[in-house]
Every structure is written in structure tokens, then in C-alpha cells.
Design a protein that fits this description.
The protein is built from three helices and eight strands; from the N terminus they run H-E-E-E-E-E-E-E-E-H-H. The protein is α+β, with helices and mostly antiparallel strands. The protein has a single domain, classed as Sandwich (Jelly Rolls).
Length: 159
């Protein structure tokens, strides 16, 4: 855990505190890791996880991202949000470090420099995922445009 960029700035006492507020958990492929209530954030140690979002009005949920070992997720808990904005499900059998968010925020409050650096990492993760989502949406829009053009072209040649 100490090697992970989220924790490598913590001193030994802070690392001990993190050890006390975290646990390793195993999840079977297909098992839901979280949905809704937001008290923890997670570090994927082994396996892969899919983050999905469900449209507010219902309908099919869609993949936001696929996570690999070393990635942190459920970060909205670090920001104090009361609900996770996505659904996390184990894509394969997984081992995950589950960390109590409120207590971790207290550790960050006691060390402002580390807290600032870690919150910058959280912001970078959110921005990176935002860019990934925007690229995915751009691809979808381009596909729809090509399908419409093909449909119009077929309609024009049959008249």
C-alpha cells in the first residue's frame, strides 16, 4: 500500500491509521461492489472492475470505465458526497482495499500538505475520467452521424 501514489506521502503514523480504517475484501465476478450509499473509497488490488452509470430517467446503464489493478475508485466519498455517482461491479474475481472515507479525510486534515497533494490527485482522476467519457461520447456521436448519412444516402438512391 505504501507504494501507491495515494499513500506514498503519508508518514508511518498516518500509514498505521490507514491500516486501521481499511480492509482487504474479495469480490466474485459479477458481484456489486457499491451502489448508492457512500462511506468508502477503494483501491483495486487484483482483477478488474467496471464502473457503470444508469440514466436518471431509467433505461440501459452504460460503461463509464474499466479499472485495472492500482486504480482508485469511489472517490466521491473523499469529497464528502453522500451517494456514489456510479455503480461498481467486479468484472472478474477481485481483491479490493476498502477504506473508510470520513476517517481518511480526517487524516488528510491533520496533514495539510499531504491532504492538498492527495486532493490534487483526486481532481486529476476526475478530470481524466471526464476526458475519457467525452472521447467516448464523441465516438458515439460520430457513429450516429455516419449511420444517418448512410441512411440518407440509401434513401436518396432509391428515389
Amino acid at each position: 500500500m505504501k507504494k501507491h501514489e495515494l499513500f506514498n506521502l503519508l508518514n508511518p503514523d498516518e500509514m498505521d491509521q490507514v491500516s486501521r480504517i481499511s480492509s482487504r475484501k474479495l469480490f466474485d465476478a459479477g458481484q456489486r461492489i457499491y451502489r448508492g450509499k457512500n462511506e468508502h473509497f477503494f483501491v483495486l488490488l487484483v482483477g478488474s472492475v467496471v464502473l457503470r452509470s444508469r440514466p436518471e430517467g431509467g433505461g440501459e446503464d452504460f460503461v463509464l470505465s474499466r479499472l485495472v489493478p492500482g486504480q482508485v475508485f469511489g472517490l466521491s466519498a473523499l469529497l464528502g458526497a453522500s451517494q456514489h455517482s456510479a455503480i461498481a461491479r467486479a468484472e472478474t474475481d477481485c481483491e479490493i482495499l476498502v477504506i473508510e472515507a470520513r476517517e481518511f479525510r480526517e487524516i488528510l486534515r491533520s496533514n495539510h500538505q499531504v491532504g492538498f497533494t492527495i486532493m490534487n490527485l483526486v481532481a486529476e482522476r476526475y478530470f481524466s475520467r471526464y476526458l475519457d467519457l467525452m472521447h467516448s461520447l464523441q465516438g458515439i456521436v460520430e457513429q450516429i452521424s455516419r449511420m444517418q448519412e448512410a441512411s440518407w444516402t440509401r434513401g436518396a438512391t432509391t428515389k
